[in-house]
Amino acid sequence: MRAVLSGLGIAIGIAAMIAVIGISTSSQALVQQKLAEIGTNMLTITAGKDFLGQETKLSPDALARIRHLDGVEEASWTSDVDKHVYRNPNVATGATGGLVVRVAEERLPETVGANVALGSWFTTATRELDTVVLGSTTAEKLGITEVGMQVWLGERLFTVVGILDPVLLAPELNTSVMVSPERATAILGFDGIPTTIYERSEDADVLRIRDRLPQTVNPASPGDVKISRPSDALAAKNTVDQVFTGLLVGVGSIALLVGGIGVANTMVITVLERRREIGLRRSLGATRPHIRAQFLAEAILLAFLGGLAGALIGVAATAVVAVANGWPLAVPLLIPVGGLIATIAVGAIAGVLPAVRASHTPPTAALSA
Amino acid sequence: MTSVLELHDVTRSYGSPPTQALRGVDLRVDEGEFVAIVGPSGSGKSTLLNLIGTLDRATTGEVLITGERVDDLSDGRLSALRAHTIGFVFQQFHLTEGETAVDNVGSGLLYTGMSRGLRRERAREALVSVGLGHRLNHKPKQLSGGERQRVAIARAIVRRPALLLADEPTGSLDSVSGETVVQLLRELNENGTTIVLITHDRDLAERLPRQVSIRDGLIVSDSRDPAIAVRAKSGVTA
């Protein structure tokens, strides 16, 4: 019973460590998987901010110039419009829910890697009508569940023709309502100047293009152009996750250490309780090294069994969390194996002192007992 | 006759200031003997047994087992000597509860370097020789006290020791079981095993071929050497 409890200490330490690493690795694997899907080859170009902190506009022909750059595969843009969207005309003005109306260029979904969840992107027909495409969060906030429902935008009712899946590389689109340039020019007073340009190229060309974009977009004042790589932010988030994981592993190692002390404690008591057995074995011809090896092996076995149970529990916990969140299950083999090696080491260290004490128990103990 | 055991002026002191548990013991046991060492508690007979069994070392004097001086042997050499030359039988049996009779007896060969299969085979033979051929796979709990002590004796003789040491082997048994154990020891002795039996039971000692009495750390009588008793009475120690 005592042995089981002290083994449990080790088990919890190892399980916590593996679960923490496994869960965080699985969630990182999800991000990696997404990154691989959407690519890390997209750049976002915006004009700098003016002295009032307002986003300035880019040159109207910037897109055309970017498309001419060697290596550019896709490019598109959006432009913020100073209008707001509401579920219906009765909603109080100003209760915008943080939703933004953006004019979206035709090639936007291909460029940013957006999938249409419901309905479709603007077609030649719908582009000329009072229609919108909603970002995923927008649809949720406005309570739009199907294509054909209407929203109130700039004193008119617009019909929803499409709803996008969440866009990972351009998350600002999730809270956007997108209007076609044709319709925006006709009725929203849109001036045709983009606010944000999205550009995609071959992976190998990204850095070269990044260097050339400022001059291309704004030859007069290249320093005002802001270029970012949204995938960098995701990768950075992963790095932060790794730091956090490191911290939790630290906590797990403390649990392992405490478990090791538990094993040492159990072994010390065991040695005291088993004086008779030690004496008997000595009388049967066991040498001190025999006794030492026996108790050391028991300590290691105890810690190893605890570690094995912990590894199984940890992997199982990771699997449960991963399945529940729809993440890919990713436990690096190194972690359970490393954990087991760590428990063996802990057991060995914890067992040394009791084993040495056992080997120095006088053999006469069996006879006087 | 070759000696199996020789003690020359052996003393053993404990603690500080030292108290002497043995105060100069001379004893010789020859091959094939069955000796009872008898004395009241506190007389030093357990200390004597520990010294004979090489579980403890003499403070002064010489201890020879099968002619070899053991006082200066390393722990490893002493362990080897115990593994091959000396068999122990304890009052409390000291059997492992979770193991069968065969495995308990086989543990007597654990430190002789014998393979497991061979150990079990020898253990079966030893159990048959103590009359427990029908109890091979019973665990200690399923055996009577007398049977348990016979398992313990089988464990002691399985390695065919030159010397069998029995410490109050009947102390935990009723008289009937005790009698079967004594009978078994007698048979073993008749077949050539040298036995030293330690007891506080004078009646038991009287029935054995040779009795050595110990009191206050001294041998006060030896049925093989009546002169000792005379010397002890006159206050002269060897």
Overview of this structure, please?
The complex is a heterodimer of chains A (369) and B (238). With 369 residues, chain A is of the alpha+beta class. In chain A, 53% of the residues lie in helices and 16% in strands. Chain A has eleven helices and eleven strands. The two termini of chain A are 24 Å apart. A six-stranded mixed beta sheet of chain B has the order 6-7-8-3-9-10, with helices on both faces. In chain B, strands 2-1-4-5 form a four-stranded antiparallel beta sheet, with helices on one face. In chain B, strand 9 and strand 10 form a beta hairpin. The two termini of chain B are 23 Å apart.
Task: Produce a short descriptive summary.
Chain A is an alpha+beta fold and 369 residues long. Chain A has helices spanning 2-38, 62-68, 108-112, 136-142, 181-187, 206-217, 230-273, 275-283, 288-325, 334-359, 365-368; strands at 42-47, 72-81, 85-86, 100-104, 116-119, 131-134, 150-153, 156-164, 176-179, 196-201, 225-228.
* Count of alpha/pi helices of chain B: 8
Order of helices and strands of chain A: HEHEEEHEEHEEEHEHEHHHHH
Spatial ordering of strands, largest sheet of chain B: 6-7-8-3-9-10
Sheet having the most strands of chain B: 6 strands, mixed
DSSP strand tally of chain A: 11
Tally the helices of chain A: what do you get?
Answer: 11
Strand content of chain B: 25-35%
Overall form of chain B: globular
> Helices and strands of chain A: which structural class?
alpha+beta
Query: Most extensive interface, residues per chain?
Result: A-B, 21 and 27 residues
Overall pLDDT score of chain B:
90
Low-pLDDT ranges of chain B:
none
Oligomeric state of shown chains = heterodimer
Instruction: Report mean pLDDT of chain A, rounded to a whole number.
Output: 84
Biggest sheet overview of chain A:
11 strands, mixed
Instruction: Tell me what portion of residues of chain A adopts beta-strand conformation.
Output: 15-25%
Compressed to H and E, one letter per element, the order of chain B equals EEEHEEHEHHHEHEHEEH
Can you give the helix content of chain B as a percent range? 25-40%
